[in-house]
Structure formats: C-alpha cells, structure tokens
Amino acid sequence: MAEEVKLLGVWGSPFSRRVEIALKLKGVKYEYFEEDLQSKSALLLKSNPVHQKIPVLLHNDRPIAESQVILEYIDQTWKEGFPILPKDPYERAQARFWARFIDEKCLPAAWKALWGSEEPEKAVEEACELLKILENELKDKKFFGGETVGLVDIVANFIAYWLGAIQEVVGVELLTKEKLPDLYDWSDEFCSAFHESLPPRDKLVTFFRRRFQSTTTATSN
C-alpha cells in the first residue's frame, strides 16, 4: 500500500518549515495544506484537538503534532534517508537538549527583545547572552550536526532566517557578524543549503512590517 503523507502548515511559520526541511532531506513525498489560523480547518481541529496548532503531520491518516516530535517521528519512520538525529545515544541526547534550549529559552527571549518589552535594553542583552551560549556549542563546526545538518540546525531555522527579517523591520540587532560571528556564518550556511525550503524574504518582511505597524498603532492609541 502506498504511503500517504500530508502536512498542515502555514507558509511563514518556522515550525511547519522545519517539517518540510526534514521531509525533503528524507526524500519523502508529501501533500501540503496551507492553514488559515484565523479560520482553522476541520482537519486541523480534528488532527490536533489539544493545541489546535500547526504543524501537523498526517501519515496514513494518523496525526502527529508538535514540530520537534514530528522531526523525531520522521527520522525514526524513514530510517534509510538522511539522518536527522545522531545514532550515538549521548550525541542524540545532546541534540535533544540543545533543540529544547532553542525552543524554551532562545526563541521566547528573542521574541521578547524584538517585539517590545518594558525594559528593551535588558531584553536585548538577555537574548544575546542566550544566543552566545548557543554559538559556543558550534565549536568551530560547520553545522551543529557537524559537517551536515541535524536536529539542532533544523530547530534553529528561526534564528538563521526569520530573525534577520524581523530585525530589518523593528530595527533591533541580535544576530550580527560583529556580535556573534560564528552563529552568523552558520546562519549563512544554513540559508544557502535550504533556500528552497524557506519563505520568500520580501514576503516575510512585508508580513512582519504590517504586524509591527499594527502593534505600534495599537500601543500609541
């Protein structure tokens, strides 16, 4: 029986783009469904009734939610393809640790620094400190996974691509060549490797500019 793989996502979401990158690395054919988060589809609500969020992977009509969970599922299901997680148990545990560090520490701090805080300078400083910790984990490697991308690289896609687009809109600098040279070079490598799996930058900048303008208008009234 032929496998049926569907992905419910949003074009500008780093979380659903993570899944697209993993599927393409594994050479898995899939059907993509664009969701409208203002009017969620019946399929999304049925597939992820707990969180009602994207991304959701449907493998032969069985739903898997949460991007990091999906990435591990893809790696374990299509073992013959490109390895996303290391085979060594210790290295695998380390990859999971840093992936969680990104989602639980780096992303919330970056979001707070970029989209406004009661103490903006402190928020930027805290975000940069966390990104520096992440940069130290590169340890002269091309990617967090070594010579090839792995789980941590894919989870860090927001830092590699989305961060630059938002920085351009709001005028706050977190990731620069001067502040974080190794992480900056890594982001260039990552974006070059996966440019076809990333949203158009001009479209992304336009989206965030509208969001930023609506936020500043709301707070100034």
Description:
The protein has 221 residues and is of the alpha+beta class. Helix content is 57%, strand content 8%. Strands 2-1-3-4 form a 4-stranded mixed beta sheet, covered by helices on one side. Helix 1 runs parallel beside helix 3 (67-77) and helix 7 packs across helix 8. The chain is globular. The N and C termini lie far apart (59 Å).
List keywords for this structure.
221 residues; 4-stranded mixed sheet; globular
Give a topology summary.
Layout: E1 5-9, H1 14-26, E2 31-34, H2 42-47, E3 56-59, E4 62-65, H3 67-77, H4 89-114, H5 120-136, H6 151-155, H7 157-170, H8 181-193, H9 201-220
Parallel strand pairs: 1-2
Antiparallel strand pairs: 1-3, 3-4
Shape: globular
One letter per element, helices H and strands E, the order comes to: EHEHEEHHHHHHH
Low-confidence stretches: none
Rg calc: 18 Å
Number of DSSP-assigned strands: 4
Structural class: alpha+beta
Strand order of the largest sheet: 2-1-3-4
Work out the oligomeric state of the chains in this entry.
single chain
The average pLDDT score comes to 94
How can the largest sheet be summarized?
Answer: 4 strands, mixed
What is this entry, summarized?
This protein is of the alpha+beta class and 221 residues long. It contains nine helices and four strands; from the N terminus they run βαβαββααααααα. The model has no long low-confidence stretch (mean pLDDT 94).
